Amino acid sequence: MSATGEQNVQILLGIEPVINAGGPNTKHSGSRPRDVAIRAMEEASKKFFNIDEFVIEAGRLVAEMIGAEAATITSGASGGLVVQAAAAIARDDPDKISRLPSTDGMANELIIQRHHRFIYDHLYLAPGARFVEVGDGETCTPEQVEAAITEKTAGIIHLESPFKDNMAVPQPVLVEIAHRHGLPVLCDAASMLPPRSNLRKFLDEGADLVSFSGGKGIRGPQSTGILAGTPEWVEYARLNNYPNATVARAQKISKEEMAGLVAAVEEFVNTDEAEETKRYRKMMQLIVDQIVEIPGILAAIKHDRDHYIPQAAITFSDEWRGPDFDEIHRRLMAASPRVYLMNIPKTGELIVDPLNIQEDELEIVAERVREELIKAASGG
Ligand SMILES: *Cc1c(COP(=O)(O)O)cnc(C)c1O
Q1: CATH number of 48-270
Q2: Torsion angle of C-alpha atoms 162, 164, 168, 171, degrees rounded to 10
Q3: Where are the beta strands (DSSP E) in the chain?
Q4: CATH 3.30.43.10 fits 12-28+272-377, yes or no
Q5: Which of 27, 38, 109, 285 could lock 152 by a disulfide, CB 3.0 to 4.6 Å apart?
Q6: Ligand 1, atom 11: closest residue by C-alpha
């Protein structure tokens, strides 16, 4: 006899889980959806709706809560990048919308600062765009951006991401250049929440469309995203997005996911950030206290542009003779229970992130990290 559906769910959920102490990384299940989001998903599953109406109402509610003029819902922030590019190329032209990703005869170039290139940026190319890179990979000037604009230009990309801001043309300057040429600024701010002030910041700087992840700090359904912006550009985005027969049609977002996101955003914006930050700080202090005296190890709480909530950042001092963080990360994931931390080779930081750590997991994380670092420090 074959197992019933429910038995198979138990088999599936029986695969070795991970204690996620590394933050809302997609390959480690993103963030934990809020209870209110799960409840909203269940409720939404019991009814049918006209999805065009549902998408418009969900976007309106999200916009109102985050203080944006307009917003629409996407399949993750990555889905938002596809829709941004499609909107920039096709706007509200039904013929163009239906022809993408074929861009014959259309302006399809997106200007991007070379040092803003990042692992997901090829999503911008999915609707048939191509990049025009400016700057030398370290710096870029407003003059270089403006000189790249031609009649083939569809928009200018701006990335807001940890460890990425250095030496970029500031967004307000990009906006001034773009708008002088009738072009939109497409901002990817997927992982910049919290702080909640960022919900408005990039819009206030003049970005036409800003893509946020619904499945990171907001803790909505993992597959959701928000595209916030001006009413004009949000409407272009909506026309180019699911459920219409467009290049983004494969990026389906169920009514359950949209309802879950609306519920999560409501709780997210109504949460006291000072209280939340205090709680995260306390959690991270416990981690730091456990490891700070290990020879060769430096540990400190960081909370700044590169560390969106208080995180414990672990680095090596000159005295360190043990294995590198790749190896320590591997050991933590190979043991049982598996503990996932975020390894950032660029800055040499191993990060403990409190967002996903449950109350009963904190001590386990502290103990496992301490054990592995002590073993590594003594040449193990
Ligand atoms: C996480 C991230 C994305 C993707 O967001 P999803 O919601 O997972 O699709 C895109 N861009 C940046 C900069 C990110 O950090």
Answers
A1: 3.40.640.10
A2: -40
A3: 18-20, 70-74, 109-113, 130-134, 153-159, 185-188, 209-213, 225-229, 297-304, 307-316, 338-340, 342-344, 349-352
A4: no
A5: 109
A6: 190
- 112 φ/ψ sector (left φ>0, alpha ψ -120 to 50, else beta): beta
* Closest protein CA for atom 15 of ligand 1: 191
Enumerate the domain spans of the chain.
12-28+272-377, 48-270
Centroid of ligand 1 to alpha carbon of 211 (angstroms): 9
Distance 136 CA to ligand 1 centre (A): 24
One-character DSSP codes across 117-152: --TTGGGGGTTT-EEEEES-SS---HHHHHHT--TT
- For the Cβ of 189 lying below 6 angstroms from any atom of ligand 1, the answer is no
CB 131 within 8 A of CB 164: no
How much distance in Å is there from the Cα of 173 to the middle of ligand 1?
24
Task: Write the pLDDT tens digit of every residue in 211-258.
Answer: 999 999 999 999 999 999 999 999 999 999 999 999 999 999 999 999
Pocket lining: 161 vs ligand 1, CB cutoff 6 Å: yes
**Burial classification of residue 366, based on how many CB atoms lie within 10 Å of its CB (0-12 exposed, 13-18 middle, 19 or more buried):** buried
pLDDT tens figures, 281-340: 999 999 999 999 999 999 999 999 999 999 999 999 999 999 999 999 999 999 999 999
